[in-house]
Amino acid sequence: MAEKHIARSRYDHFFCVAGIAVLVLGALLKMCQTVPALEGVKSALNLRRIYDLPIFLIIIGAVMALRGFLASSKHHEGEVVLSRKTFGAFLTNNAILLAMLVLVVVICVLQPRFMQLRVALDILTQSSTRLIIALGICFTLLIAGTDLSAGRMVGLAAVVSASMMQTATYANRFFPDLPQVAVWMPIVIAIAACMVFGALNGFLVAKYDMHPFIATLAVQVIIYGACSLYFDMPPNNSQPIGGVRPDFAALGQMRIFAVEGFQGISILIPIAVVICAIIWFILNKTVFGKNVYAIGGNREAAVVAGINVFACIMGIFILASCLYGIAGVLEAARTAGATNNYGNGYELDAIAACVVGGVSLNGGIGKVSGIVSGVLIFTVIQYGLQFINVSPMWQQVIKGVIIAVAVAIDLTKYRRK
């Protein structure tokens, strides 16, 4: 491929035009589907089999056009270089995403019902709590660490919050004599319990320079043991916790914007969006966020620069545990119950999603947008493979291949730099 130079303004205008074209195509297809006078066109083109594809095209086109408009309004100078090298770099950086898009197309061909708005909303709902956990994990990965206790903290928060949120008439109440407390109280207690263990993680790593893998592995075992002891307290005796109050269950089951013919959007989706915005602000607009990247990039240089590494690492693990606690509460509310095995293995999926989303295992590199894409990629692949009835064993094989490829790509990019 011969090297070509394109003006930045022309490149941005292309996105505007392409986005408008996709939007118009989607609008025309939707009109053919819904306007009675065009019933013949609908039948001739078999537009029933594309389900909600026009809506997706409208959304994609609007995003592309908006992206191009915002970029062109900044009056960027310079050129965009198109060459074999830049094309290869693009393929390397987006290999997993491109593979997912190919898989989605294959699934849609095999099972057109996958092109439904309901399916997309289900995927976003399933991604919400996973995304919150991944956002917590990302802080520990950014300092070239990890957190193996994340899943058990999710389980702890779920058990603690659900145990205090049962209805007064439920036969097997965890606390038979506990009055009906305000809904926020058990939530705060559950999150605070997770933050105590998060502080323990941070103390072991910051004070004793213990490797995060070992420190969080030890705390993971402690949390599971403590949660199991709590769960086994009489009169519960390790019975699954159920009968949660409707006001608590609404935190994970309520739907907004529901109208006739549209099931609405799960409350978990806007909650996850708000938390994403908060974490983006922390990482990009605060001194704490800059210090996280600095410690991950070069810890010795961060110390020389005057950064309080001890306080920053403590803050990282406490903030991460707060996010795990929120995810655990939402999981208990979504499922209207809990057991001590909730959250088992969630930390591995979160780490994998972060790596797939571009968070470097070597520390110092990672963006919230990449984490969002990583979580969505895993959820889409898992949901899509289930949709076409692929064996769960094959799903695990595919997930493992994706993780291995993503880490290989990450290490390749790191060596080049």
What is the gyration radius calculated from CA atoms? 24 Å
Unreliable stretches, pLDDT < 50, 5 or more residues?
Answer: none
Question: What is the percent of helical residues?
Answer: 55-70%
Mean pLDDT: 90
Q: What is the succession of H and E elements?
A: EHHHEHHHHHHHEEHHHHHHH
**If you consult CATH, what is the topology of the largest domain?**
ABC transporter involved in vitamin B12 uptake, BtuC
What spatial order of strands do you see in the largest sheet?
A: 1-2
Q: What's the CATH class label of the largest domain?
A: Mainly Alpha
Q: What spatial form do the alpha-carbon principal axes imply? A: globular
Instruction: Give the count of structural domains.
Output: 2
Structural class: mainly alpha
Q: Which architecture of the largest domain does the CATH hierarchy give at level 2? A: Orthogonal Bundle
Q: How many strands in all?
A: 4
Q: What is the distance, rounded to the nearest whole angstrom, between the alpha carbons of the first and last residues?
A: 24 Å
List the helices and strands and how they pair.
Layout: E1 4-7, H1 8-34, H2 39-44, H3 53-73, E2 79-82, H4 84-93, H5 95-110, H6 117-142, H7 150-163, H8 184-208, H9 212-231, H10 246-253, E3 255-256, E4 265-266, H11 268-285, H12 287-297, H13 299-304, H14 309-335, H15 346-356, H16 368-387, H17 392-416
Antiparallel strand pairs: 1-2, 3-4
Helix pairs in contact: 1-3, 5-16, 6-11, 6-14, 6-15, 6-16, 7-8, 7-9, 7-14, 8-9, 8-14, 10-14, 11-12, 12-14, 15-16, 15-17
